[in-house]
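A quick aside before the break. I want you to see a complete sequence-to-structure record at least once, exactly as it would be stored in a machine-readable document. Don't worry about memorizing anything.
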Amino acid sequence: MAILYHLNHVLTNIITSVVFSLPLHEKQLKAFFIAMNARAFLCSYTPHPDSLLKQRTSLSPPPTPRKSFASAARFHCQVRLISRGRRYTFRVSARNPGLKSEQYEISDVREPAKFKTGEVEDGGVVVPWWEKFPKRWVIVVLCFSAFLLCNMDRVNMSIAILPMSAEYNWNPTTVGLIQSSFFWGYLLTQIAGGIWADTVGGKLVLGFGVIWWSIATALTPVAAKLGLPYLLVVRAFMGIGEGVAMPAMNNILSKWVPVSERSRSLALVYSGMYLGSVTGLAFSPFLIHQFGWPSVFYSFGSLGTVWFATWLNKAYSSPLDDPQLRPEEKRLILTNSVPREPVTTIPWGLLLSQPPVWALIVCHFCHNWGTFILLTWMPTYYNQNQGLFVYYLGLLWRFLLILEVGLRTLLSAMAYL
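That is the input. The structure line, written in tokens, reads:
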């Protein structure tokens, strides 16, 4: 019975190493049941002692045992341990080189205690790794992709306006009117978007904004063919959709992301805007060169519908509304968030009387003025004054914006240090 001795010795060592990692009140119970089940299982595959004795003292053919290891065969035993949602699986193998019992040995054990871990739900179902990804960071990634699409749809007109003005004979005044019409709608929904997000939830408001501006983007070529007034209305509608994005995003992240993770999440989401500018200005010249200027609006607008379908399936306005959120993550979010009462009245007089508020307003105004002037008019400047074609404008913008993103990343790292 040497094989039982060796196998039990190995199993005991493995079980002991696992059991000592368990909570104290579970150690003895887990070890007892695992050891008894594993040893009983091995005994069922071991020759009876009397048959082994007869094989050694008699020259007659040995009787057939009830169950035995095949000659030169390998036997595998797998032990599984489940505790508090964690599953541990380890494997022991043995080899039978002959008939002599003393030559049985444990061999070819690649890893004495190799554990396979995975989250186990009720019923013993292993949850895939992508479902274990924190749900709050799924919300952050979706908000990042929404801002990516936001700036892609915003800046594509800066490139497409060049072949459009040549096709429809627009003068610089008309071009300026078309470019500014976006901000007519954008101005209207900045404050209203925050109020709507507090009232009906950030999920509905942000989803409405993305699908609204995506439809307006896809309708831009149709409106341009119908006439200038239709194009101005469509561009203003696009601004209405993008105006609600930022307040709705802040509403969602304030509920989903703990205080200790908000700076990282906001940095990721806002970087989507700059990456969207890089992507839009880099791919628009290529699409215009290959398929014509309407392809820019059709392709970019269709991406919003894909995002919207994912958003409806995965996102919720609050962790309390998500029925699939794991209890431990919900506990983490709620215990590390600052509770606050819903805002019913906004103290405008108190806010506008504070000098820091005006300092932020002035700085933000100057930043946006410079940023949008460059995004809107620099392609036209390089085309009309420097003679660059649309295709080369994409290469230039790609270099400049990648340089900008690199500098922002470097300065952010320096500020962190």
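Two observations worth writing down. The longest helix spans residues 135-168. Residues 54 and 60 are 9 Å apart (CA to CA). We'll return to this after the break.
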